[in-house]
Amino acid sequence: MNIVDLHTHSNKSDGSLSPAELVHLAAKKGLSAIALTDHDTTDGIDEAMAVAAEENIELIPGIEFSTEYEGRDIHIVGLYIDHNSEYFKRRLVNFVNGRLIRNREMCRRLTEHGMPVTYEELIEEFPDSVITRAHFARYLLNHGYTKSLKEAFDRYIGDRGPCFVPRKKITPMRAVEIILKAGGFPILAHPVLYGMSMARLDQLVARLKQMGLQGIEAVYSTYAAADERDMRRLADKYDLCISGGSDFHGKAKPGLELATGYGKLFIPEEILDRIKERRKWMKENPEQLRYKKILFTDLDGTLLDSEKQISDYTWNVLKDWTETGHKLVLCSGRDINSVGSVKDYLRLDFAGVYLIGYNGGQIYDCEKKETLYKITLSVEQVRHITETAKQHGIHCHTYTDTHIVSPRDSEAFRYYRRVIKTPVIYSEDVTAVMTDGACKCIAVEVEDHDRLEKLRMTLLPWAEEEGVSMLYSNPNYLEFFPSVSGKGASVRKLCELLNIDLCFSVAVGDEQNDLSMIETAGMGIAMVNGTEEVKMAATVITMDDNNHDGLAKALVDLI
């Protein structure tokens, strides 16, 4: 009976054999097919395929994505990836961008700790490699900074080390989507290894199945017989194909052999035959793998260019997005009326458009013309904020449902109003014209950011006790809103109201007040013109800025 191995690694990620050496070994062992599934890269596939043709063995182009789910590292294997497709190349470039930011920050921290290293020196020492913590550890050892690889991890770059920077990973649901869009076959890799209860694992598989998961690795090198039975039952429950692999790494995993694992592994070719049958069904029924998403986008610095406009290209991408059935949500720290005016002058009169104003304080349904959700600061909290700002000589205003309420006209207020068209009520005591609480207050200082920071520090103890959040939407604006509010909370709330799983949500932003929604959504996108903090939190960074259709170009591949 022919045998296969559907999970292997080369030295293009963390294996020890070159792609060519790996295929030669597979042929020597008599395999009929082998999948090269390096971590987050397909760099070795062309080399492996060329040798496979010579050896008369099937080489399955694949990848293994490292993802994160509820704080756990979850791996998704993709088989039959169209690794040369422009879509897939763009996705890998985004992974590289995120990894690059993380690796440069680790270099900076190591240098601060007396071990100078630049990213350029790292890639020179490890050419053609995807730089991981293992390469950092090897560099520290090679240059005499540590006496062992273990010391490098224990003292500096381990999970609790002072120089470690966690790389924000995509969700497993997003990895499934990427694999499907690249023509691939997504498989949950070695699920027993995650140490999850069967109930939690069942829940994860159910969500992944909803996204289009097609297989589960039920045959694996370290499984006991009971483990394999459990995984086969789970596959049956969710109509998933069985997959199997050794997870061969060469010398990196001593004693674990290609195809046979630790001696008892056996992966019959019929496992691959069933995967091929399912792939045929997938090609004949593409509509079964489509689902609707919801996009949450910030306005200034994200959707809007520096002239507060969008290009025809961006407008058409948003039109295509909504006509496909996806939802569009315009999110801003602005009042809801101002967000609505942005929607109108941009001509975003599409179906399925929602507005979020006041950094999550109000959610508005444009089709129904009604507020779906609202949460406010109390009148007493508004009074305390505005009076404290006045003591610091800083302009601070608030809002009613229909108006901005400002204590007076001022240079700072005119600066704020240069693009805001909401009507104004002037009242020295802003609370005197309020009938109930306000979604937000905003302090404006255009000359000296340090004055805003002093105001923030003065109010910090009170704000923590009162449950009031204070965030900068840009260096000139300090915003105040209920801590239970925020853009992240509104993402979760609207998904709940529309009965949309968070894994189908996408959030895009550039500033500190966008952080919570980027972290909450199933996929977080940071604008390349955004703050470093936002980029570190996101799973994807746009290739272009807000003046060059950065959001739209990132969105095209998600439609």
Overview of the structural elements:
The chain has 559 residues and is an alpha/beta fold. It folds into 4 domains: 4-90 and 170-288, TIM Barrel (Alpha-Beta Barrel), CATH 3.20.20.140; 100-157, DNA polymerase, domain 1, CATH 1.10.150; 294-375 and 486-556, HAD superfamily/HAD-like (Rossmann fold); 379-482, 2-Layer Sandwich (Hypothetical Protein, Haloacid Dehalogenase-like Hydrolase, Chain: A, domain 2), CATH 3.30.1240.10. 39% of the residues lie in helices and 19% in strands. The protein has an 8-stranded mixed beta sheet with strand order 12-11-10-9-8-19-20-21, with helices on both faces. A hairpin with a 4-residue loop joins strand 11 (362-365) and strand 12. Helix 1 packs parallel to helix 2 (45-55) and helix 5 crosses helix 6. It is elongated, with a radius of gyration of 27 Å. The chain starts with a strand and ends with a helix. The relative contact order is 0.09. The model has no long low-confidence stretch (mean pLDDT 93).
